[in-house]
Structure formats: C-alpha cells, structure tokens
Design brief:
Structural class of chain A: alpha/beta
Strand content of chain B: 25-35%
Largest sheet of chain A: 5 strands, parallel
Largest interface: A-B, 30 and 21 residues
Shape of chain A: elongated
Oligomer: heterodimer
Shape of chain B: globular
Strand order of the largest sheet of chain A: 2-1-3-4-5
Chain lengths: 397, 116
C-alpha cells in the first residue's frame, strides 16, 4: 500500500515544520505524506487536485474560510473525506458544532502529537474499512448481476415453445428455487416419427451448475442427432463430462425416444428419478431403472437401454426430485406415493392439465413452506399413433 | 435455522479408519460444512474413511457430491472410502443415482472395516 496522504489545514506557519519533524519517521517509512493548506478555501482546492486524499486535519479559526465552513462543504461535496478538527482546549461549543457537521474526531491545542498520531491511525483505519466495505458491496452487486445473467441463460436453455402435434400433447413446467438451480428439460422432434424427451438435474446450484446444465443439454442434443440409442447418447455425454471434472459435479439425466408409429419408448436412465408411465386405465408405473449412474462420475460406464410401449391414451410424466422432496412445515416430504396418487387421478387429463394438477397438489402439500429445490416436470400424452408409413425400423439417422 | 438444515458430524477413531457419523440431513445449505469436516480428516492422512449413516435421515445431490469428492481425494492418497448404515431411503437414493456402483456400501460398520 502507498502512503496515506493527509491534508493539514492551519494558518499557523510553524505547524508544517512541527508536523514534518514529529512525524518524520512515518514520513520516511512512506506511511504518511502530508499536504498543507492555510485555510478552508485552499483546502478545498487541494482536495480537488488530490482526489486520493481522504483525511483532513483542520484548525477552526482561519482567515478566508474557517474550519467549520470547510466541514460543511466537505459534508456536502466530499462524503468520502474524513475530517479531524484541531480546536482550542475547552472550546466545547465549536467542537460540538464540528461533530454535528460530520467531523470524525477532534484533538485539542496545544497538540499532543502522540494523541494526534493515535487519532490519525484510528481515522485511517476507519477510512480503509469503509473503502473495503464499499468494495465488498460492489462485488456483491456484481455477483448478483452475474446470477441474474446465469438465470437468464438457464431459462433460455429450455425450449420456449414445445412442438405441437395432432398425435400428442406435451407440456413442461420449471419453477426454479430461489438460487439458480441445475434442472433442465428438453423436448425435440428428431424426425417426423421420433420425439426426444429429456429431464435432468445437476448436483449443485449457482452459476457453475447453470454452466454444467448448458453443456449437458447441448451435448445431449448433439448426440441425439447421431445415435438412435439413448444409452449410446448418455455414454457419449458422460465421457465428455467425466473429463477434468475435478469439482465432481454430476447430473442425473433421463433420455428417451418415443416412436410415434408404434408407441415404443426407448430410454436410458442416468441416475434420475424414474419417470412414470400412466395408462389410460389409471395404472401408474415407474419406468424400470436401466442400472446406470449419474453422468460425470464414472468414466467408461456403458449405459443400457430399456423399452416400454406407450399406447394411445397413455401418458409419460418426467420430473425432478424437487417434486418428491418438496417438504411442508412439518418437514415431511411429498413423496412418490402421493405423486403416483395424483397421477392416477389424472389418468384422463391432457398433458398440461396433468402437469398442473401435480404442481397444484405439491403446492397444497407444501402449504407455503419454502421451496428448496427446483421443481421441473415434463408430461406427454399420446393421442394416436401415426401408422401407415411402415412399422418398425428406426427413423433417425 | 430450521431443523431441515441440521446436521451433526461426530468423529470416531478406529485403528483402521476414521469414522464420520452423520446425523440429520445433508442438503445444499450445509453440504459445505460436511465438505470441510471431510477435508480435515483427509488432510490428516488417514488410510480409510468410513461414513456411518446410521442416524442420517436425508442426503441431497449436493451431499452426494461431497461424498464423491471425499472418495476421490482418498483415492489420490490410495485410501479407501466406505459407507455403512444406510436407511432404506438413502439406499434408494444411492440405487437410483447409481452411486452404489461407484461407492462401496456395507450393511454394518464391522462388515465395512473388515475390508480395510
């Protein structure tokens, strides 16, 4: 740190010599550097020319502009300058006025230089603390702005509009918790016969999670264009995420491809809560796990595919644990059982109504208790198959 | 603080391993506390670290990440990281996330320590 620059304001000519003499060690060490002015007006000019001066030591009685007037001016125009008043011993009236005008402290004449040194040190410390606090505040503001950006990035990362088809209805909801979370979903048409459904949850929150989310989503989308097998896609994404993952961040991800011609739904589950398959009759089945683990933690892991058949009238419900682990004031969790109950009741609802009924029930359950995790779900209702173009086979490249 | 975020960490020293007994919940609000506790133990250069989850009610994915970091750090020093006493719910979390493929889980302490 450079020298603390101090402006001394006094019309007594010998004060300058005295100060230089008494503080010579600190000056020589480069801790203090003194500037001198004869009155308030000169002091303001000196401050104007030396914006790095934050400490003023000022006498009260001076020609042209006295110390109290100077204080008033400083209070108005230089709030970051702290003033210490040097007054005649026992002049309580002026001292009170000075303190009321924002003086930081005072010393009395004849000046006790030990006391002055302590006062200077104390004031300098205060100024530095204040400066640090301001810096911290600015940094916080910057971080908050960064978080806002990350939130925007996150929200722009999910499809703004879901495709609409006669053969199916699809609906998704994402309610991020207060912090930026790492949930995401995706839904895309691979070709005219194949729909890709993704739901995922990154292990952490905040900006790093948002970035991890973005990378995962982009990688998976890119893989989905190259491989038919969801397991193959998850494998590819996993290999990438595992590299240099010193932070041990991971993402649970479910990816499935629905063939609209025969209703076959081929999926692979990388450590995510099993989505539900709702039949028209009202049974709710958790899609069996594929024996795989979350992405980003097991390099070389070979993922597996499973297939279920979705019939016209059936629905799929993909969700993150923000739903099942939502808790109420008694700290009870919403749980899978209650979820399955609501889904069974919604056997005949459209995709949007189904998702909304779950979210409404979670809200009813939480009863105003704080939401700790992102709540995300994606529902799909199959209305009809698009037969006629030849059954079986694979349509995607 | 609500009890939602309460976590107690008790350390026991076995001749073969440091045992971290967790009680309560590990979630995003206190995962860093666990991480620090674990770091302390690993910095002490232990040959094995055993997590006893007998009194643990809940662990979120942020908590799982801390476990993973611990296992990786131990591995770097050729040390083992073991787990025991998982409740049914936590065992389910391990199963669904696939962590049971990666982290060695045992029923009891003695079963875990027998492998050290």
């Amino acid at each position: 740190m450079g020298a603390t620059r101090i402006l001394m304001v006094d019309d007594e000519e010998d004060l300058e010599l005295l100060v230089r003499q008494r503080f010579r060690r600190r000056i020589r060490k480069g801790e203090y550097e003194f500037l001198f002015a004869q009155n308030g007006k000169e002091a303001l000019e000196a401050l104007e020319q030396n914006p790095d001066v934050h400490l003023v030591l000022s006498d009260i009685n001076m020609p042209v502009m006295d110390g109290l007037t100077l204080l008033g001016q400083l209070e108005d125009s230089k709030p970051d300058v702290k003033a210490v008043i040097i007054s005649a011993y026992g002049d309580m009236e002026n001292i009170r006025t000075a303190m009321n005008r924002g003086a930081f402290d005072f010393v009395t004449k004849p000046v006790d230089f030990n006391d002055l040194q302590i006062t200077i040190d104390k004031t300098v410390k205060h100024i530095n603390d204040l400066e640090q606090a301001l810096k911290n505040r600015d940094r916080l503001v910057a971080i908050r702005r960064e978080l806002d950006v990350a939130k925007q990035v996150q929200l722009s990362g999910v499809p703004a509009e879901l495709p609409v088809g006669d053969a199916f209805g699809v609906h998704a909801v994402m309610n991020p918790a207060k912090e930026i979370g790492g949930d995401f979903y995706d839904f895309f048409e691979l070709d005219e016969h194949h729909l890709g459904l993704v739901i995922a949850d990154v292990s952490d929150k905040g900006v790093p999670a948002a970035l991890f989310t973005m990378i995962t989503r982009a990688l998976l989308k890119s893989s989905s264009r190259r491989h038919d097998s969801p397991a193959r896609c998850l494998h590819e994404v996993n290999e990438f995420l595992c590299q240099d993952n010193d932070a041990c961040m991971f993402v649970t991800a479910f990816y499935g491809v629905l063939d609209l011609r025969d209703g076959s739904f081929r999926y692979s589950n990388g450590g995510h809560n099993p989505p539900r398959h709702l039949t028209q009759a009202g049974t709710v089945n958790a899609l069996p796990l594929t024996g795989d683990c979350a992405l980003g933690i097991a390099l070389g892991h070979q993922f597996g595919d499973s297939t279920v058949t979705v019939k016209p009238g059936d629905a799929l419900f993909l969700y993150t644990d923000g739903i099942t682990e939502a808790s109420n004031h008694d700290l009870k969790e919403y749980g899978e059982q209650r979820l399955d109950g609501v889904l069974a009741d919604g056997a005949s609802l459209g995709a949007a109504a189904l998702a909304d009924s779950v979210l409404a029930d979670v809200e009813r359950f939480a009863d105003g208790a704080k939401q700790f995790d992102d709540i995300t779900c994606l529902s799909l209702r199959l209305r009809s198959l698009s037969g006629g173009t030849g059954a079986g086979g694979s349509g995607s490249q | 603080m609500t009890s939602k975020t309460q976590l107690t960490i008790r350390t026991e020293q076995d001749e073969k391993a440091v045992i971290l007994c967790l009680a309560g919940r590990v979630d995003g609000t206190n995962a860093s506390v666990l991480d620090e506790a674990v770091r302390d133990k690993i910095d002490a250069g232990q040959p094995a670290l055993l997590f006893d989850f007998d009194e643990l009610e809940y662990i979120s994915s942020a908590g799982l990440r801390v476990l993973l970091l611990a296992a990786r750090r131990m591995q770097a020093d050729k040390g083992k990281t073991l787990f025991c006493g998982l409740s049914e719910q936590i065992a389910e979390v391990f199963r669904v996330s696939g962590f049971d493929h990666i982290l060695p889980v045992f029923g009891t302490r003695s079963e875990a320590l027998a492998t050290v």
